[in-house]
Design a protein that fits this description.
This protein is of the alpha+beta class. It contains 13 helices and ten strands.
């Protein structure tokens, strides 16, 4: 028998029992769709984590106070001391943040206000769309200059390029816009870079946020491998600078965004693995269903098998035909599962799901393997039937 003829016979056998074929494929369809949904949610979770921390280097170390606003002990001087004394830190910045209303003419918007040192943007990997950064002199002289996030500039000026050189009011004080940032999205601190206005830290403390605003420090370690040493060194320097006794707890705490990303990613991967395992069980159960159907098919078509062998069909031909039926079941079910899964993903956007090709590939591959694995034994049994006994069967 030619392979094309074998394929045709397998197809005709499946079409002859449409309802049974559909029921056999149902488990495959649901299993593949589930795998796609799970992988899509996992991919969306990873994308959200990466988006949140994309502007921080893997060597970033964040230092912030552990006490209330009024008792904050961190300062710009702490930044200078750590940078001067540390052997494992290459760069750093200080910042304070709060909220206020920013206005231009009749337009106004509520915004996060950040007071920053001049190297904040380089440490945070933020780029300028228009204009330029303020200088160390601006910070020292408390000059009233301000840099706008993309969305904030768009809200106040319609098009961000119109913002340069304009005067905006913050806390009824006038600030000159010196730059506009590229669109960036969320920050690792739960705010949006695009809805934030940035001023020199001394200016922000004096004119907008007050001197009691909490200072947060961000340092960059020289190498990823030196992160632990850098954190220990920063802790030691700050304890000395704050004159803390051995019996006293730190009045600051350190956070390593890289480890947070790693931990969040591992948690996401673990959850996705467990859900994929559940989906795989669905596929395995559907595979057992395919095996049962194939056994019933072999029993129903015993006489047909006898006739095929009597007219010259070889054992491998019978094996191929029945195995093809099983594979066609799994492939068709896999394709339908992909269509269903891809259609469901947009409905899961609220859960962070995004379309993932890897999910479709994984689900389809698993479905084909299930078809081959569970279809092989019934096909082998059919191929080994004795033609005389098969022809005698009722």
């Amino acid at each position: 028998m030619f392979k094309l003829e074998t394929l045709g016979m397998a197809f005709e056998a499946l079409i002859a029992n449409k309802f049974r074929t559909l029921l056999s494929m149902l488990g495959i369809i649901i299993g593949v769709a589930t795998v796609i949904g799970v992988v899509s949610i996992g991919a969306g979770a990873k994308a959200q984590i990466e988006e949140q921390f994309k502007n921080l280097s893997v060597t970033s170390i964040i230092v912030f106070p552990t006490r209330g606003t009024g008792n904050s002990r961190l300062s710009e001087e702490d930044l200078d001391v750590v940078l001067a004394e540390s052997n494992f830190v290459s760069e750093g910045n200080a910042s304070v943040s709060g909220s206020s209303t920013i206005a231009f003419g009749t337009e106004q918007a509520s915004a996060t206000i950040m007071g920053i040192t001049e190297n904040f943007f380089s440490v945070s990997n933020l780029n300028f769309l228009y204009g330029e950064n303020f200088t160390l002199q601006d910070n020292q002289d408390r000059n009233k200059v301000i840099i706008l996030g993309y969305t904030l500039a768009e809200t106040l000026f319609e098009t961000p390029d119109n913002a340069l050189g304009q005067t905006v009011k913050v806390n009824n004080r006038q600030f000159t816009v010196s730059g506009v940032l590229e669109e960036n999205g969320s920050s690792s601190f739960g705010t949006s870079y695009d809805d934030t206005a940035y001023a020199p830290i001394n200016t922000a403390q004096q004119n907008i946020l007050g001197n009691n605003a909490q200072v947060r420090l961000v340092f960059l370690a020289n190498e990823v491998e030196l992160m632990d040493l850098a954190q220990d060194e920063i802790t030691s320097i700050l304890r000395t600078e704050h004159r803390l006794r051995d019996s006293q707890d730190n009045d600051f705490q350190l956070r390593d965004p890289g480890s947070i990303v790693s931990s969040a990613t591992e948690t996401s991967d673990t959850l996705a693995f467990l859900l994929i395992a559940v989906a795989s069980m669905v596929l395995l159960v559907s595979g057992i269903g395919i095996m049962n159907v194939m056994f019933v098919t072999v029993a129903e078509r015993t006489k047909e098998i006898g006739v095929l062998k009597a007219i010259g069909a070889k054992q491998k031909d019978i094996l191929t035909q029945f195995l093809l039926e099983s594979i066609m079941l799994s492939i068709t079910g896999g394709v339908m599962g992909i269509i269903l899964g891809m259609s469901v993903v947009p409905l899961l956007k609220d859960y962070g799901a995004i379309q993932s090709v890897s999910g479709a590939i994984l689900g389809f591959t698993f479905s084909v393997i299930v078809g081959i694995f569970f279809g092989f034994y019934p096909a082998l049994k059919a191929s080994k039937l004795d033609p005389v006994d098969a022809l005698r069967s009722e």
